[in-house]
Amino acid sequence: MKLNLNIQPLNTWINKEGKQPLLIAGPCSAETEDQLVATAHLLAKTGKVTALRAGIWKPRTRPGEFEGIGSIGLEWLKRAKEETGLPTAVEVATAKHVEEALAAGVDILWVGARSTANPFTVQEIADALKGVDVPVMVKNPVNPDLSLWVGALERINNAGITKLAAIHRGFSSYEKSAFRNEPMWDVAISLKTLVPELPIINDPSHITGNRDLIAYISQKAIDLDMQGLMIESHIDPTVAWTDAKQQVTPAALTDIINNLTLRKPETRNTEINDKLGELRNQIDKIDDLLIQKLAERMQIVEKIGNYKKDNNLTILQVNRWDEILHKRIGYAKALKLGAEFTEKFLELVHNESIRKQTEIMNAEAGQVEEKLTHA
Ligand code: PEP
Ligand code: MN
Asked: Percentage of the chain surpassing pLDDT 70?
């Protein structure tokens, strides 16, 4: 499925001046005029940065923490832009934020992860943007819900904003992990598949929550053909008022960018393209075979379903399923396939078998299942 959004290419609203990759950097929060302006100068001097970010209004999980310096910070951003020439980017979460940021000449707005999760907030922002020609970036919602992310992009796009990008900042999860927010790359890839022309910018600071992992996630984002990076950078991260652990100095940022291996999605080199074409041919053949074999398997499932029905046997026989799972995972492991992948794949196949057999056993129940799976 493809989604119809009216989107202008990235190069119509941001001038990379040959810098690779597109890099938006700056402190998590504007704290003082000196901190912001000094950081901006160091970032501009790296020659790597395309735009300066800074949080002016900060969404904090608990009350009583620093909630952003507020409107005065917009004046500091203006000064930073005048002195460095860097365009500026700010998070907006209310109609008032939008008005104030635009009045202060902020170049790019972004919708934060918590706001994206709330359609009321997104609609309020969208309404405030009507009739305005400003680039807007939409962070993924805190929970891994592709529809919420898409919905927010649609609301902003419906308001007439065509200079649009998404920011992949990872997803909150209950389970403990090495990351502050699980990347769940597949959600970002699904968005790319739905809207191929939408630029996606990766935010390794908020994914990792840890400056030591920023280089690793940045490389992965580049390898997945994301269009840019947003990295939090502070003149002295150790004393930052917010997100201290995930910010890097402008010097460390330069190292991270210099050490990236840049890749391109395509090449004109015919030798490389021929070799790639040959390998892709092999994959195509294998995929055809996989589908053919899955269809054959399903035909046998149908026979089993009929046989069980005639002999009054239950569809699910837990022991049999357990045995299948164990045997197959062992075999797959020996062939160097990941256990998690094999289990997920088999589960998918098994669920489809159960659906098919339910259909056979009981036409009515089968219809209910059908409705549920397509809900
Ligand atoms: C931020 O960019 O500083 C921020 C608050 O991010 P998020 O909305 O991704 O939590
Ligand atoms: Mn932050």
From this structure: 97
